[in-house]
Design a protein that fits this description.
Elements lengths: L2 H4 L4 E6 L2 E6 L10 H19 L8 E6 L4 E3 L12 H19 L4 E6 L2 E3 L1 H7 L3 E4 L4 E3 L13 H9 L1 H10 L3 E2 H7 L4 E2 L3 H13 L3 H17 L1 H15 L3 H11 L9
Parallel strand pairs: 2-3, 3-5, 4-6, 5-7, 6-8, 7-10
Antiparallel strand pairs: 1-2, 8-9
Helix pairs in contact: 2-3, 4-5, 5-6, 9-10
Length: 268
């Protein structure tokens, strides 16, 4: 961490109701993902998980990730930290980033990315670790590592094909060419293109935060297991999650409220 970064928070946190907004705060560097930022993201994931495990009333029920300013969500890894790096050190740095992004991805709350500008390299890999992505019309997304004689190392080769398909992912990774927001929407790389992605992301996260945390956690886990381990494994997790939901007061109250609702007369 540089002297400047020691005196500056590289990841800002703001609680908006039940939603925690985390902002990468290196706008002069394109919100590049330095080792300090990766460490801060790891601490963020641990704090959110601890709050969920303790079932704290004031804990976040959803997480939104974004970047400071209006130019970049994140331009990717901090290239100055890769200058002259050796093979084993690079491998360990990639494993570290993969671990942190996987922790964010597997949080028991919904994670939404508000892509306010460019999302390149590690920045796109971070956005892909979210559950849902909102992009500004000016956003551009890509994996340009090939132009530096390298390849994505923080999960891009795995998550991108799952989102856009093998062919499109291979083309993006091997050419390094970015896509604009409209193209990203068309191929499924983002779910929404809106003028104010942060506001829209917080609105969606707030809606989901009102849902049963047991149901949200179970649904996320079932989806993830199904994608990685196959339909049979995912279906077992799904059944277990439904069973867990049916033990909660929220589910029982919701079912009773549904059954007790006023019924409209059927014409005839």
């Amino acid at each position: 961490m540089t002297t400047v970064e020691q005196a500056t928070q590289v990841l800002l946190r703001e609680q908006r109701g039940a939603v925690l907004v985390a902002t990468i705060n290196r706008p002069a560097k394109g919100n590049a993902l330095s080792r300090a930022v990766i460490a801060a993201l790891d601490e963020l994931a641990a704090d959110v998980l601890d709050a969920c495990s303790a079932d704290r009333a004031d804990g976040p029920r959803a997480l939104v990730l974004t970047g400071a300013g209006d130019r970049a969500f994140s331009a990717g890894a901090d290239i100055t930290e890769l200058d002259g790096i050796g093979g084993e050190a690079a491998r360990q740095q990639m494993l570290r980033g993969q671990e942190v992004f996987s922790r964010l991805e597997s949080l028991p709350v919904v994670v939404v990315a508000a892509i306010n500008g460019v999302a390149f390299g590690g920045g796109l890999e971070l956005a892909m670790a979210a559950d849902v992505r909102f992009a500004a019309p000016s956003a551009r997304l890509g994996q340009p590592e090939i132009t530096l004689a390298n390849l994505p190392g923080w999960g891009g080769t795995q998550r991108l094909p799952r989102l856009v398909g093998r062919g499109r992912a291979t083309e993006m990774i091997l050419t390094g060419d970015p896509v604009d927001a409209d193209r990203a929407l068309a191929i499924g790389l983002v779910e929404h293109v809106v003028d104010d992605p942060l506001t829209a992301a917080v609105e969606l996260a707030s809606r989901i935060a009102e849902r049963s945390p047991t149901a949200v956690r179970g649904a996320k886990q079932a989806i993830a297991v199904g994608l990685t381990d196959g339909t049979a494994a995912g279906s077992l997790v799904e059944a277990d999650a439904v069973g867990a939901c049916c033990e909660t007061p929220e589910q029982r109250a919701a079912v009773r409220a549904f059954l007790d609702r006023p019924r409209r007369a059927v014409p005839g």
